[in-house]
Amino acid sequence: KVGQTYVRIHHYNKAINYYEASLKSNDLFTLRYDLTNLYFKLHQYDKAERTLLTALERDPEEEGESLELLQEEVQYCLLLAKVYHKTGRSDESLDILGRAHSVQKQVVKRASVDVPDIVNKERELLINILCELAKEVEGMSLNSPQTEEYYKQAVEINENHTKARVLLAEWYLSAGEMEQCEQQCVALIKKDPSNDSASMLMAEILVMRGNMDGAIRHFEDILIKNPNHYSSLVRLIDLKRRVGQLEKAHPYVAQAESHVAQSVHEPGLNFCKGVYHRYMGEMEEALIFFNHARKDTIWGEKAVFNMIEICLNSDDILGGETLKTSDSESSVEKNDSELMAIKTAEKLLKELQPENPASILKLKVLENFILLATKSRQGAEKAMLKIQDMSTSERESIPVLVLTATAYIILKQVPRARNQLKRLGKTPWVSQYSGELEKGWILLADVYIQSGKYDLAVEQLRKCLQYNKSCSKASEYLGFISEKEQAYQDAATHYENAWRRSFMANPAIGYRLAFNFLKARRYIEAVDVCHEFLNKHPSYPRIKKDILEKARQYIHI
Length: 557
Description:
mainly alpha
């Protein structure tokens, strides 16, 4: 009690001194566990490990210990596994979790005979240990059937255990085993029709099968029941964008906001608003909302990733040569702005300490895109060295293939870049890497355009629009191709799609749209777009002389 009181009032050194002194005279489990837990919370992992290893100094196969001693051993093992996990020692974490699993099975067996009242509680702990084992194996990027086996063992202990079954279903989804995932979801919904986790997984199955509208209905049903189910809201925003109806997501964002007292203190809502504004092309607003969420334990990592991507202007296509344009900013001002954004991205990157494999890979990819953002040969060469240090499975992943191709383009090694991108061109659409695939397909289209292979470029661009009708960059490239072929009506149609889907955020697209309306002799539309353009981008007056005045003259004639 004394030690816990010191901890509550943040007198950690006094708490440690109390625990250490008490242990010399009375080696109680609670004292040793509380001391070790405090070491862990204070990031004193060496001391935590030494204390736990001392407590665990016995043959794990030894029989005849009391039930209480076995229970204590399990708790020590679980805490030591956390220490190993935090210090990046996955193999040791897996070993000690295996020992915890073995001992906990003995606990369940003994409890069923000696203390039946605690059997359910001990089975629950056994299920949690199996789930931790599965996560640890999965976290080591091992494509091992052992992950599935651990989750299945957990479900077998208690078929009605929602958490274990959801984790098994999620694993099936990540492994592309949609039928098995669906079976688990059906079992969950049969037991509890209001199970949001199962409904979300069913929606993700529909997404992977290309049924966006069906998935949207699932997420809408969840949000009607629970407007503040932020995991569903962020997926709904993304899917509404993909079907070209982003603005229809706004009522759901407003509804969620109306159900909280102070939205600025709601990280999940702020993250969703950040995503919505990012897709709307309102990057400053997006950064404000992501910043409100960035310290949260659940949403913070994703928020920081988004902030880094905005700083790197990753919605643009780094390495793309076709659509390069000059603007009203001087090159010095632009370079200063870009360097400041890169430095901000570097600073944000240092905040991240991801633990799951997908986030660790994303961190590595963004770290290298920061090197590429300078568009210098030196940066690209550094990135290539870092890529070579990655594991084979990482180098073969979709994000790293895009990264590698981009580096090759900056190094002027276009044939090598094309070989990487062709692999992506044959890759089927995967929801998890939808953004990376779009970038890869557009970059391949860019390479084809540079070599005059317009038909092959169009094939890649139409694939982007098949899975994301709001992909303004694909529409912009299609407009460029049509303009080059002097099909000005078609070019205007594509540019108009790009202009509307980007919510008029990119002045280069607005200019090309007005120009192609002019070339297609659609003078009234050209004038309308010029007015829209000048309202949105008053610092770009060139359009007035180049297009607006000419269009007005033709109308008067």
